[in-house]
Amino acid sequence: MPRKAAARKPAGAAAATSLTDRAYSDLEELIVTLKLPPGSAVSEAALSLRLGIGRTPIREALQRLARERLVTILPRRGILVSEINIKSQLRLLELRREVERLVARSAARRATREERARFLELARGFEKSAKSNDAVAFMRIDREFNELSVEVARNEFAAGAMSLVHALSRRFWYIHYQQAADMPRAAKLHADVARGIARADERAAAAASDRLLDYIGQFTRDTLSAGA
Hints:
Elements: H1 2-32, E1 41-42, H2 44-51, H3 55-67, E2 71-74, E3 78-81, H4 86-110, H5 113-131, H6 135-153, H7 156-162, H8 166-180, H9 183-198, H10 202-225
Antiparallel strand pairs: 1-3, 2-3
Helix pairs in contact: 1-3, 2-3, 4-6, 4-7, 4-8, 4-9, 4-10, 5-6, 5-9, 6-8, 8-10, 9-10
């Protein structure tokens, strides 16, 4: 009996983790795509009903989103979706440039054959979403690309830093891309990083990462002149 009970426990824990991951993924997309707009108030109960997920996974997902600064949890007052600040976004990009270069270089060095094949698929996915001008598809591919890059880099400290910037960057892009972004160019720059990793070319991956961040920095500054 004790052996059977021990065997069941990891399965339950895995299920709970899966629900939390699903809650996080769904909530992040709602925030990034502005279905939960900046400054809006949310509650665990309402989000649980909306997503069909229990309140405990919702609470755990919100805590993660708070660490990533997508929401602010106000004790005994509620939960607010965070506002957007361009100056903060530019400071965030300073960190992102340095860490993302390291991640790209490390991923190119450490990826397995199967992981390199997936990077090639993601490169094609970026280009396909740009041709169809599908911002949501582009954002979803970008999220998988970022998560895979961090995983393949196998550096837990870089992973911790990048978890703070990617969702905020995706939301900023989604809000402003129609005003200032060039989707085909953005797709090509992302695809260049993915292909550098797939070819195990550390120098090319790092250089492509720098070009991507050059573009994102200019895009962020352009939002000011576009009336952001």
